[in-house]
Design brief:
- It is a single chain.
- The protein has seven helices and 53 strands.
- By secondary structure, the protein is mainly β.
- Strands 1, 4, 5, 7, 12, 13, 14 and 18 form an eight-stranded antiparallel β-sheet that branches. Strands 2-3-6-15-8-9-10-11 form an eight-stranded antiparallel β-sheet, with no helix packed on it.
- A hairpin with a 2-residue loop joins strand 19 and strand 20.
- The longest helix is centred in the N-terminal third of the chain and has 15 residues, at 238-252.
Length: 759
């Protein structure tokens, strides 16, 4: 950038032109400032420096939203005696925000600051909720002043904005400029001077007094690209600000306001591809936090799946809807965030879980839980429509929210204040919805609603509810109700599958289900048996259900979150938290039980077949397994017990047995177990203990279908139950396999394949 009036009064300038490395030059003092970034020193992935991107002039620095910041120490001896430095201050900077912070505790996401608000000292230029922004200063005499951007002048996401803040103490004004034009001003007493924030460093991208979450995560961190930051000890004129803006347009962009290509600012999964624990063929966000995958839908030759996502970092905070698309339910592409909290009265505070269905024209629509903390309750059911009818985009990138909530909970309908996760379906009689809630004093419940036009809904009463006295583990509240048709049984009765996820005091946070009959007229559910069952016995690593009927095949498919098992400290260091489980096909077996199996399309990920044996003894099989090692494998094994009481397989074993994870079946107890007591020696990892649950084999051999994907272990037993767990071995040689059991079992068959990454 050119020097305005020779850049008279320029006291600091970061051009961010390095394009590589973990430091950046402040060119006036010629001091190189370190750039803080989580992977400067990486424990679980390859070390890599901060992410650089094209800027408005040369390069710019991408701030990841939770770990990237710059500390610049200020020479206080110089500022303490410099009267000019306290009577005027101007800041000019180009920013391209990627996401907005929620604004916890009312604090700004800092672009640049050196302030102490409680002492009313220093200055702070930063952003707030939904792109509003502010310049704030402490004045001598103990006064704190704030100037805010007016409505309509927010900083847009994924676009460049040129921001200027000018404090003129002599004249007594503060002014804000956006893209070269003044947008706000306020008057101060003439002769005002800044109160220096002595003992405080200048920070870029991080608030001097950020809020802390879980004792680990600093909130109010900038997410996006920053370029050409200049600080002056004088007040720039309106003409100088406009000329500086125009110079960038003319010199680097042909006179046109610069554009940020989405691929240059999006979350990048590349640094995580070498993470020793991050799954590579399970669906996951590019980076940071996810919880439930939800709202699966098929349209125009593609499957769409959405997910709860905090794009600011690997922690639960400001929830958006992430978005993937796939042609085969296996290989997924990352798409831009589909739904985000916005400056409205619908969902300013969060876009929480929901589902997808079709409107009267057969176009996809999303039903979501709208978070609005200014309303009571703060959860309602809302709708978003695809812009497909206007743009014909098969990726369904753009969605428009219906401006008003469709279903607002009233007193007497469920547990007031707990009302979320609509599951909506359409049939010939209209649209129907289940909403997760509870009945006061009685337990969790799925509430039923019906509509003839998809917009106006009638409450039909509890669809199904728990008896919390009889089944206390079903908890006071249910989340994520899912209803799927299973077809007809041997008696010709139409059966449905109801899934719920209990939460609240005493709840067992897992996926419970019933098979039963749907009463469409009364919108209620009659289970075949009152006691619920578990799909997965792995203890909380298989949660957050969603489901769909696949229009291509008629299959009923469910999706889940495979929760991690780590501390906040390790999630910070890793840069990610959680991933999706494998898509599962569920069906009604001949014996009336629920059948589950991973979808057949997963076979497309098979690489080299590593082993194929038949009718081996335990010793023979283990001899063959000596040469089979890996952390991305598919294993199919059938084991005939032959008077064996406990039988299974060890995975992720070190050669000396120091680390290993044991999956086994106890024939006396009729239970499937995982033993993680030797899974890891890492002092910070949590995964440990023995987990499992009931599995009736009824005389069958033990048939295990196992997927290893780095920290993921999924075992599907006899098409009846799954056991999902997480493992984080400390040793990189924890790659071995071993059949384990007492007695002399027969290994009827065993096949193992290498599995390929979907990314």
């Amino acid at each position: 950038m050119s020097r305005i009036n020779g850049d008279q009064g320029l006291v600091m300038h970061w051009a961010f032109d390095e394009g590589t490395g973990a430091s950046t030059l402040e060119s006036v003092s010629e001091v190189r400032d370190d750039i803080q970034y989580v992977f400067n020193q990486a424990e679980f992935t390859e070390q890599s420096g901060p992410q650089w991107r094209p800027g408005v002039a040369g390069n710019g620095l991408l701030f990841d939203g939770y770990s990237t910041s710059i500390v610049h120490s200020v020479n206080e001896e110089d500022t303490q005696h410099d009267q000019e430095s306290t009577s005027a201050l101007s800041i000019g900077v180009w920013v391209a925000p990627r996401f907005y912070d929620w604004g916890y505790e009312g604090k700004l996401t800092a672009i640049v600051n050196r302030h102490h608000m409680e002492r009313k000292q220093g200055y702070l230029l930063g952003m707030f909720r939904h792109g509003s922004w502010s310049f704030q200063v402490g004045l001598e005499g103990g006064d704190w002043r704030e100037l805010w951007s007016p409505d309509g002048h927010e900083l847009p996401k994924n676009e460049w904005s040129y921001v200027n803040a000018v404090f003129d103490g002599t004249l007594g004004t503060i002014k804000l400029y956006l893209n070269g034009s003044e947008i706000a001003s306020t008057d101060l007493p003439s002769g005002s001077r800044l109160a220096e924030a002595f003992g405080t460093d200048l920070l870029i991208g991080k608030n001097n007094h950020s809020s802390m979450l879980a004792g680990v995560f600093s909130l109010q961190m900038f997410s996006g690209i920053i370029d050409e930051l200049k600080i002056y000890n004088r007040a720039l004129s309106a003409e100088e600000v406009a000329a500086s803006y125009q110079h960038v347009l003319d010199s680097a962009h042909g006179g046109v306001h610069p554009h940020v290509p989405y691929d240059e600012i999006k979350l990048d999964r590349t640094p995580l591809l070498t993470d020793q624990h991050r799954p590579q063929y399970h669906v996951s966000p590019p980076a940071h936090w996810m919880n439930e995958p939800h709202a699966p839908i098929y349209f125009d030759g593609q499957y769409h799946l959405f997910y709860q996502h905090n794009p600011l970092g690997p922690f639960f905070y400001h929830i958006h809807w992430g978005h993937w698309v796939s042609k085969d339910l296996v290989h997924w592409r990352d798409l831009p965030v589909a739904l985000a909290p916005a400056k409205d009265q619908l969902a300013p505070d969060g876009i929480w879980s929901g589902s997808a269905t079709y409107d009267a024209d057969g176009l996809p629509v999303l039903f979501f839980t709208a978070g609005n903390d200014s309303a009571s309750p703060n959860q309602s059911v809302a709708l978003a429509r695809s812009t497909y009818a206007q743009d014909g985009d098969p990726d369904l990138v753009h969605w428009v929210k219906h401006p008003e909530p469709l279903i607002v909970q009233k007193q007497g309908i469920g547990a007031f204040g707990d009302f979320r996760d609509p599951f909506v379906w359409k049939d010939d009689d209209g649209w129907f919805a289940l909403v997760g809630s509870g009945i006061e004093g009685e337990g969790g419940a799925a509430l039923g609603f019906a509509s003839q036009d998809m917009l106006n809904w009638t409450y039909k009463g509890p669809f199904y509810q728990a008896d919390i006295q009889k089944y206390p583990y079903l908890g006071p509240i249910w989340e994520l109700p899912v209803l799927l048709p299973l077809g007809t049984d041997k008696q010709g009765q139409h059966k449905h599958l109801l899934l719920v996820s209990p939460v609240g005091m005493g709840a067992d946070v897992e996926v419970f289900y019933w098979i039963g009959q749907l009463d469409t007229h009364n919108l209620s559910f009659l289970p075949d048996q009152e006691e619920p069952e578990l799909i997965d016995v792995g203890d909380f690593h298989f949660t957050g259900p969603s489901g769909m009927v696949d229009p291509k095949t008629g299959r009923k498919i469910i999706f889940t979150i495979a929760q991690g098992d780590r501390t906040s400290e390790l999630e910070y260091q890793s840069g990610w938290a959680h991933n999706g489980g494998l898509p599962l096909s569920v069906f009604l077996r001949e014996d009336g039980r629920l059948g589950i199996e991973p979808i057949q399309e997963l076979q497309s990920l098979r690489g080299t077949q590593r082993l194929s044996i038949r009718d081996n003894s335990l010793a023979e099989a283990n001899l063959s397994l000596k040469d089979v090692r890996g952390d991305m494998l598919e294993i199919q094994v059938e084991l005939e017990p032959r008077h064996t009481t406990q039988l299974g397989i060890k995975v992720r074993c070190t050669p000396d047995g120091d680390e290993e994870t044991l999956l086994y079946y106890d024939f006396n107890e009729a239970k499937l177990w995982v033993d993680r007591t030797k899974t890891t020696r890492h002092p910070g990892e949590k995964c440990s203990g023995v987990q499992g649950g009931k599995l009736e084999l009824l005389g069958e051999n033990l048939k295990l279908h196992i997927y290893l994907d780095r920290s993921m272990v999924e075992a599907y037993a006899n098409g009846l139950k799954s056991l999902t767990t997480r493992v984080y071995p400390s040793r990189k040689d924890a790659l071995g396999l071993e059949i384990w059991g007492d007695g002399e079992p027969l290994i009827k068959s065993m096949e193992i394949w290498n599995m390929q990454s979907i990314w």
